[in-house]
Amino acid sequence: MDALNLRDRAASGASAVVALIEQGIADGTWGPGTKLPTERELEKRFNVSRNTLRKSLRVLEEQGKIVRHVGRGSFVTSEATAKAPAEDQSLTSRIIGASPAEIMELRLMVEPQAAELAAGRATAADLHRMEECLAHAERAQDVPEFEHWDGMLHVAIIGAAKNGLLADVYDAINAIRNQPEWARLKVRSLTPARRAVYEDQHRRIVSALKDRDGDQARAALQEHLLQVRTNLLGS
C-alpha cells in the first residue's frame, strides 16, 4: 500500500477527538442541551493541541451535533443523538476500541523508531519544547497534571520526527490515553518511586536527542515504554 492510500486510512488527531466526543454524546455523557467542557479542559482530557481541538469542534458544528456560542461555549444539539454514527471499522474506531495492551504494543513498535528519526531531524524549537514538557512534568502536583505533560513530551518527540502520517496516527493514539480505563490504570500504577524513574528516563531520552544519538534515543525510549507497560499491565 502506498503512502497516499495509507494516509487516506490514517486517523488524524481531529478525527479521533470527533469520534470520542460522539461516543460521549451517544452514551449519555453529554446529552442534548448539555454544555461541553471548556476548550482547555478538553485539551487536557484528550491530550491534544488547541488547533486540533478546534478542528474537531468545527467538524461537529458542521455536522449539526453541537452549536458554539462565542463567550458561552459549545452545546450538544437535540439532533446529535439521532446523528450518532453507526459502528465502523475505520482506523479511528479501531484505535478507540483498542485495549491498553494493544496500545502499548503499538507504541513499542512506533515510538522508539520515531525517536531515532527525531535525533537527526529535531530543530532547536523541538528540543526547547521537550525541555518545557520535562520541566512542567517534574513540577506537576498530581497524577493528571504529570500524565498530561508526560503525554505532551511524547507528542513533541513524535513531532520532531517530521513525519506527518506518523504524527496523525500518534495523535489518535494519544487521545485514547485519557479515557477512563487508562486513567484508572495510571492512577493505580503511578507511585512516587515510579514517577521518579519515569522522570529520569525522560531526561535520558531528551539528552540523547540533544546529542543527536539516534541509537541511544531509540534504546532509551524502548526501555521507558517497557517499564511503563510492566507497571500498567504487570507484564
Automatic annotation (TrEMBL):
Keywords: DNA-binding, Transcription, Transcription regulation. This is FadR family transcriptional regulator. Gene3D superfamilies: GntR ligand-binding domain-like (1.20.120.530), Winged helix-like DNA-binding domain superfamily/Winged helix DNA-binding domain (1.10.10.10). Pfam families: FCD (PF07729), GntR (PF00392). GO terms for molecular function: DNA binding; DNA-binding transcription factor activity. Residues 11-79 form the HTH gntR-type domain. The keyword Metal-binding does not apply. InterPro entries: GntR_C, TF_FadR/GntR_C, Tscrpt_reg_HTH_GntR, WH-like_DNA-bd_sf, WH_DNA-bd_sf.
